[in-house]
Amino acid sequence: MKTHPTHFVPLLRQSAKWAMLVAVIAFLVYRMKFAPTLVLAQTAQSGPIVAEVMGTGTLEARIKTTISPRIQERLAEVLVDQGDTVKARQLLARLDDGELRMQVEVAEAARVAARTSLEKVKTDEARALAVDQQARLNHQRVAALLANKVASPDELEKAVETLQVAAADVKHSQAAIAEAQSQVVTAEKNLAYQIERLTYTQIRSPYDGLVVRRDRDPGGVVVPGGSLLQLISTNEIWVSAWVDETALTGLVTGQPARVVFRSEPGRSYPGEVARLGRETDRETREFLVDVRVTELPNNWTVGQRAEVFIETGRKSEALVIPQRFVQWREGKPGVFVNDHGKARWRAVTLGLRGREAVEVTLGLSTAEQLVATREAKQPALTDGQRITAPQAGGGQAEGAK
Prior knowledge:
With about 400 residues, the chain is an alpha+beta fold. It folds into three domains: about 45-60 and about 235-390, Beta Barrel (Elongation Factor Tu (Ef-tu), domain 3), CATH 2.40.30.170; about 65-95 and about 200-230, CATH 2.40.50.100; about 100-200, Helix Hairpins, CATH 1.10.287. The protein contains three helices and 22 strands.
């Protein structure tokens, strides 16, 4: 029995499909295992570098005050509002002063009465002194007459009694004067106290500053400690930034810094380190650094977020590479270099670290080509792995074939 040639056609078609599948798999295996990996390349070059420490924080005023009354009274008027700039001793608010003015008037009347009483007892003293003087003269006269046996002992005894009464009147007048003088002092101090309380109805600014918040409106009764206004001094504004404790040794006060507000991410404002915190947060391992802002944006708010970049070092000439090309193995830094189409691991020593670049002080030379994976999600390069990198002219580096 003979087999017709058409019976082999399906078999041949099926074999061709399997052969194509095997070829695709082989191609994929080759691409994954043996084909060069397309990488990102960068030539090591010399240039300037600025080392910076970064921290995130909020804009704060060094001096801030809650303006509140010293006495309980009805709020009559508020003369400033949120966003107003004020001068030292400027009137900010006024309390109802009707009752306190009456108390001042009462205290003034009491002072006048006390002074009148003092004048009266001084007059009484003058009269008592005059009587005392007359009694002394009479006593001397009677004593002289008694010595000449002209006056009797009874007359002398009466003169002595009159003299003693006059002396007692003088002492009484002097005591009354002391009491009246004390009453005058008390009245004057009470008047000064009432006048001082009257000044409490006028709430003034303690310094040049900016009103950042208004908490009360006229009509209500305010109490000591209750907030009327929130005031800050604009003489010193800084960003209180949290910085990792590993950067502590490189920071000192006075270091230049730049501040980037999140409202203007494309612009930096000049500043300098004003104060270093002395306590590290036990959870985040960060500490506070206050960076004085020497120039503020046109629009700013206390509490707005900002990043600070503190300059800890600068070199005009160094071997500089981008941060992304630095790889770490067992806690030690290194890079991959293009060695005739193969990635070769090279341990390096790092120097200054900038925001996007880092200085290499040992292990790399100028013009060597660094390589790294094009995306972070790609598998890490291995030593000896075949690579290919785009060249500036649009071709490919050695190893592409």
